[in-house]
Amino acid sequence: MSSYRASLILRLLDGLEAVRAALWPTGAARAVPYVFLAPAVLLVFLLALGMLYVGDSSLRVLDRSTFQQSETYSLGNYALIAERTVYLRILWRSLLAAVVVSLVTLALGVPYAYVMVRTASSALRKLLLIGLFLPFLIGQVVRAYGWLIVLGHQGLINSGLGVLGLGPLKLIYTYPTVVVGLIQYMLPFAVLMLAPAITAIPEDVESASDGLGARWWQTLWYVVLPMAKPGLVAASVVVFTITLTDFAMPEILGGGGNDFIANAIHDGFFAVSDAGLGSALAVLLVLIGSTCVTVLFALLGTGTLGLKQRGTA
Amino acid sequence: MSSVRAQRIVFWSIVVFDLVFLALPNVIIVVASFTSGEIIRFPPEGFSLRWYAKLLELGEFQDAMLRSLYVAAICTVVSIPAGTLAALALVRYRIRFETALQVYLLLPFTVPLIVSGIGLMLVFGAAGILGRLWPVGLATCVINLPFMIWAVSASVNALDPDLENAAANCGAPPTHVFFTVTLPAVLPGVITGALVMFMLAFNEFIVSLLLTDARIVTLPVRIYNSIRNVISPDLAAVSVVYILVAIAAVWLLDRLVGLDIFLRSR
C-alpha cells in the first residue's frame, strides 16, 4: 500500500520535473530566485501603488462647491493642516502615548521574557508562552471590548468600588484608558522581540557578575540590559510605531475625545469627506513615523531589525 | 544570596501582574457571556447560555463570521506560496539589489496600517473591485506578508544546504529535491507562518473597516459597529468565539511546531 503510494508520488514528481524541464531550460537557472520572488514583489506592489495614490490625492484640494478634487497640484491641504492647532494636539497625544507605552511595555516585558527564557521548569515556560500567545492572537476589537466591560460604568472595577461605597469613576473614554489598552495590546509583541535576545546571553556572564559581588540590579543594568540591546531596540521600535499609528484603541476606548493621527485620517475621509485632507495627514504620518524610527536607530543602532542579520546573505 | 531572592521577588511580582493584565479583558468577556441578565454588570445576575442561544438566531453575526473565515482563507492560501518562495530566494540565492528588495518587502511593516488601508482602498476603488470580498483577503495578505517571510526564513536558515546538494548528487532532479528535501525541511516555518497569517486576517480590523461596506462587513467590523450602540452580552458571546479560535490556534501551534521556537536566539 505505502510502496504503491510512494511510486505514485515519484511518478507525480517525474511529471512535474518533465513540465519544469520543458518550460524551464537549465540555462535559465539564474532566473530562479527572481521567479521565486515575483509573487511577493507583486503583492507588495499593490501597497506601493496605494502609497502613490495617497501621495497624489494629498496634493489635490477639495472644491467645496462640486465636491471634486482639483485637477492641479497644490500644497493647500498641508497648509490647512499647519493652520489648525487641533492637529498639533492630536500629534502630541499620539507621540506621548507612543513614548509611554514603549517604556512601560519594556519595563513589564523584560522580566517576563527573562523568567520565560531562564526558568528551569518547562511547565512554567509553557504557561508563560500560552499567556503570551493567546492575547497575541486575539484582535484589538475584542480586547478593547473586554476593557469596556472591566472599566465601564457598571463594569468590574466600578462595581468593586460600589461595594466599598466609592465611585463610580469615569474610567472609559479617557486618555489613560487608551494608554492602558495599548500597553496590554503591545506587551506580547515586546516580549516576543525580547525573548530571543535574552536567550542569546550566556548565563555564565550573569553568574560571573554575581560572583564578583554585583547586586542583582547592577547585574541587570550593567550586564543583562546592554547585552539584550538588540531585542530592546527591536521591541521599542515595533511598539513605538504601532502605538503611534494605532486606530482601534483610541477609537473604541477613547470615545471620540482622544483621537490619534489614524483617527484623524479616518475622519478626513469619512466624517468630512475630504480625501485630500485625509491623504495629506496620511503622508505626514508616514514621514513622522519614519523620522522617529530613523532617530531611534541613530541613537540605539538597528538591533535585530537590521538587514544584515542573515548569515548566508 | 539575599540579592538573588530580591530579584526573584521583583521579577515574579511583575510576571504575575503581566499574566493577570494580559488575561483580564479576555477572562472577563467569558464571564460576562454567561450572564442571565439583560446587561453586563458585576457580580453577574446568574448563569445561563441564553446569549449563546441568541447568537445562533442572529444571522448577521454568522454571515460576518463566514466572511471573516473566507477572508482569512484567501490570505493564507495566497501567502503560503508567495512567502515561502520569497524566503527561499532571499536566504538561498545570491540576488541583485538584495538590500533594496528586503527594504521593499518590509514595506507592509514600515507603512502604518491606516495608510496601507487607505492606499489599498484607493487602488481597489480605481480598479472597480471595492465592495467585493476577495480583495479584502488579498489586502490582509499584503499587510502581513513579512510575518510569513520571517517564519519561513528561520526554517530555511536552519536547513543545511548540503542536504539538498547530497540529493542532487544522488541524481535527484531539481523538482524532486524541492519537493522531497527542501519543502519538508522548511515545513515548520510554513506551518507557523500560515497559522499566524490566518489568525491575523481573521482578526483584521482597520483595513477591513476601510475596504468593506455594510453588505460585506467582516466579524471584527461587525463587533465594532455593535459596540458603538449598546454593550450587551450577545457581543460577549461572539467575542468568546474569537477566544476559542485563538486557544485552538495556540494548541495547534504547540502540537505542530512547539511554542519554544519563538525563544530561539537569531
Tell me about this structure.
The complex is a heterodimer of chains A (313) and B (266). Chain A has 14 helices and two strands; from the N terminus they run ααββαααααααααααα. Chain A is mainly α and 313 residues long. Chain A has one domain: MetI-like (MetI-like fold). In chain A, a hairpin with a 4-residue loop joins β1 (62-63) and β2. Chain A is extended and about 70 Å long. The model of chain A is unreliable at 307-313 (pLDDT under 50). Chain B is an all-alpha fold and 266 residues long. Chain B has one domain (58-263): MetI-like (MetI-like fold, Orthogonal Bundle). Chain B has helices at residues 2-33, 50-57, 59-92, 98-105, 107-110, 113-127, 134-158, 161-169, 174-203, 206-211, 219-229, 233-256. The radius of gyration of chain B is 23 Å and the shape is globular. The chains are: A mainly alpha (313), B mainly alpha (266). At the A-B interface, α1, α2, α4, α5 and α6 of A face α1, α3, α4, α5 and α6 of B.
Q: Are there runs of chain B of 5+ residues with pLDDT below 50, and where?
A: none
Widest sheet of chain A: strand order? Answer: 1-2
Just name the CATH architecture of chain A: Orthogonal Bundle
H/E element sequence of chain A:
HHEEHHHHHHHHHHHH
Helix content of chain B: over 70%
CATH superfamily of chain B: MetI-like
Largest interface: A-B, 105 and 109 residues
**Please, how many domains of chain B?**
1
SS element count, helices of chain B: 12
What is the distance, rounded to the nearest whole angstrom, between the alpha carbons of the first and last residues of chain B? 33 Å
The beta-strand count of chain B equals: 0
DSSP strand count of chain A: 2
Beta fraction of chain A = under 5%
Main structural class of chain A: mainly alpha
Please report the first level of CATH classification, the CATH class of chain B. Answer: Mainly Alpha
Summed up, the helix count of chain A is 14
What overall form of chain B do the CA principal axes indicate?
globular
